[in-house]
Design goal:
Layout lengths: L33 E6 L2 E6 L10 H16 L5 E5 L4 E3 L4 H4 L4 H7 L4 H6 L5 E5 L2 E3 L1 H8 L2 E5 L3 E3 L13 H9 L1 H10 L2 E3 H7 L4 E3 L1 H16 L3 H13 L5 H14 L4 H12 L9
Parallel strand pairs: 2-3, 3-5, 4-6, 5-7, 6-8, 7-10
Antiparallel strand pairs: 1-2, 8-9
Helix pairs in contact: 5-6, 6-7, 10-11
């Protein structure tokens, strides 16, 4: 797979694992640190800085944002999978790049603000984590809508061990994912947790044997991509709103989105298909 290329199977229908099919170029973008492709209606983005264990420098985070936004604009793509390599999802931020910067420099660059762009992606985003997901890598996984892990995955926020704190959403998202006591334990000590602990604590949705992680994640992504895109995006927006709204405001927001689905043709199709005992044919409208 060439850097910067996006190879595709068919752009409609569900994912058929193991199928060989023609591929076509969808973008001429020349990415240096990531690889992208499309499998049916699923976009796949792989971080690819093997010499640095996929450490996240500014060039890499910029490429991740650009690729996610490109996928998000593509109406043939209904879900996105973000992954790394066998050894590391992302071992953290690139410390060599930031070690000698001063306060004025990191403030001017608004270091970490790229996460706001990731949070703004409307298409469901799923992390498939193998190996290290530490510091910025853990924060990147938490910024996704769902995270799955291989049995060899390790998660941690070790920033205190190098004289700083999580700055890409770690103190906020980790608390919401696993609760205050466990978040404090990880952040104040910098210790790592295993994939099994991450699943027990609710940081990841499931753990798979390493060789099954990507196929299982792609299969889940394909199931999501096969549904009505506007409906799935509304459901994602409603769940995400729960992190920033109080219960009463969140329920009102959910109700407004629920009522809005009745303006969609897909709502009519879905409910009538259920009544008629047939498969729905989504038009994404």
């Amino acid at each position: 797979m060439q850097l910067g290329s996006r190879s595709a199977f068919s752009t409609l229908g569900g994912l058929v694992l193991g199928r060989t099919a023609p591929r076509r170029q969808l973008s001429a973008s020349a990415y240096q640190n990531i690889q992208t492709e499309v499998r049916d209606a699923v976009g796949l983005l792989s971080i690819h800085r093997p010499a640095a264990l996929n450490a996240l420098n500014e060039e890499t985070t910029g490429e991740i944002v650009a690729a996610l936004q490109e996928f998000d604009r593509d109406r043939t793509i209904g879900a996105i999978v973000l992954t790394g390599s066998d050894r590391a999802f992302a071992a953290g931020a690139d410390i060599k790049e930031m070690a000698n910067r001063n306060f004025a420099q990191v403030q001017r660059r608004n270091l970490g603000a790229f996460m706001d762009h990731i949070a703004a992606v409307r298409t469901p985003l799923i992390a498939a984590v193998r190996g290290y997901a530490l510091g910025g890598g853990c924060e990147l996984a938490m910024a996704c809508d769902i995270a799955y892990a291989a049995e060899d995955a390790q998660f941690g926020q070790p920033e205190v061990q190098i004289g700083t704190i999580p700055g890409w959403g770690g103190t906020q998202r980790l608390l919401r994912a696993i609760g205050k006591a466990r978040a404090m334990d990880m952040i104040l000590t910098g210790r790592r947790i295993s994939a099994a602990e991450a699943e027990r604590w609710g940081l990841v949705a499931a753990v798979y044997p390493s060789e099954q992680l990507l196929p299982q994640t792609l299969e889940t992504a394909a199931k999501i991509a096969a549904l009505s895109q506007p409906v799935v995006q509304m459901a994602k927006a409603a769940v995400n709103a729960a992190q920033s709204l109080g219960l009463a405001d969140g329920v009102r927001y959910e109700r407004a989105l629920f009522q809005a689905t009745f303006a969609l043709q897909d709502q009519k199709e879905g409910m009538n298909a259920f009544v008629d005992k047939r498969e729905a044919e989504w038009t994404n409208g």
